[in-house]
Amino acid sequence: MDTFIHVADHATVGFLADLNNRLNLGDIIVTVVFFTILMLLLKKFAWGPLMGVMDQRAELIANEIDAAEKSRLESQKLLEEQRQLLKEARDNAQEIVENARRQGETQREELITAARAEVGRIKEAAAVEIATEKDKAIAAVREEFVSLSILAASKVLGKEISEEDNRALIEETIVKAGEGR
Fold first, then answer.
1. What is the tally of structural domains in the chain?
2. Domain range holding 14?
3. HSE toward the beta carbon, residue 20, CA cutoff 13 A
């Protein structure tokens, strides 16, 4: 078994030596060290500022998104206000139209009432005028009747009595005749 371990040790050393010849282990170690140094330098001088710029950009984008959201909310608020104002304007217009309609109806009723009152006044004036004209006509007929009666009486009697006595007599007869009705 010793020989076996010895062979295995010799094989391992030989393998590493053969691997070292093929891979050049020293170059790998130097490359890893330089790569690590390069990564540290990049982290300090490139990644930090680059990440700072990226963070600023992300913050700027977030601010712009917030501003856009605020603008959207403001626009929505203004739209609602405009809709409310439009609704109020429509309501006011409807109210104005309704008031105008009511006022028109009121004025129509007032005009009808005034026209009826005027018609009543005209009827009363016509009735008064008719009564006055009737009285005038009756007075004219009486006057004519008196004149004719005087003329007839004077012809019948053959003598002429004073016109005033005759007139008084006839008017008294007419009044008595009118009362008898």
1. 1
2. 2-180
3. 8
